[in-house]
Amino acid sequence: MSQLYELSEVAEQNGKKGKPCWIIIKGNVYDVTKFLSEHPGGEDLLLEYGGKDASKAFRQAGHSSDAEKDLKNFKIGELRATTTPTTTTTTTAPIQVQPTLKDQDKEKRVSSPVPADDAEPMKKSSGFLCCC
Ligand code: HEM
After folding, report:
1. With contact defined as beta carbons under 8 Å apart, do 22 and 50 qualify?
2. What residue ranges line ligand 1, CB within 6 angstroms?
3. Distance, CA 63 to ligand 1 centroid (Å)?
4. What digits encode the pLDDT tens for the residues 15-50?
5. Gap from CA of 43 to ligand 1 centroid (Å)
6. Taking a C-beta distance cutoff of 8 angstroms, is the pair 33, 20 a contact?
7. Quick one: pLDDT at residue 77?
8. Domains of the chain, each with CATH number or no CATH
């Protein structure tokens, strides 16, 4: 099993102040300290990614398959999979939609055969009009 490194451990080895230069490419950790001066793309490019994830930059530089194969010569381990705490976000209980007071009110009004109270004054008034 290969050595596992925390992201913070890798970040410390950024090639600055005489420290080793480690980079991450596709979850693997590479020590490129000895390769810095030999890199055809230049030392500065590698140092720019010292202690960081260079996966995207490595891909975008359009490296040859030989360069890809070369990678294994510098591999020192793998990045430890980050286990982000999910306890706060795993409330998967289905959301129960409770009918609102308005909805309940609507149902009552629709199903009730008796007209609402405000119909009463209408009856009275229409009775009064009929008499005339
Ligand atoms: C362990 C990591 C790396 C290895 C082993 C490596 C290896 C190589 C090799 C063998 C070449 C010659 C061309 C080829 O065969 O593709 C090359 C070129 C190049 N590399 Fe890297 N490389 C590494 C990391 C990086 C990183 C992180 C960058 C960041 C941008 C980078 C940028 C470049 C560029 C721009 C060239 C082209 C140089 C030119 O054509 O003038 N490389 N690299």
Report:
1. yes
2. 23, 30, 32, 39-41, 45-46, 49, 54, 57-58, 61, 63-64, 66-67, 70-71, 74
3. 6
4. 999 999 999 999 999 999 999 999 999 999 999 999
5. 10
6. yes
7. 98
8. 4-79 (3.10.120.10), 99-131 (no CATH)
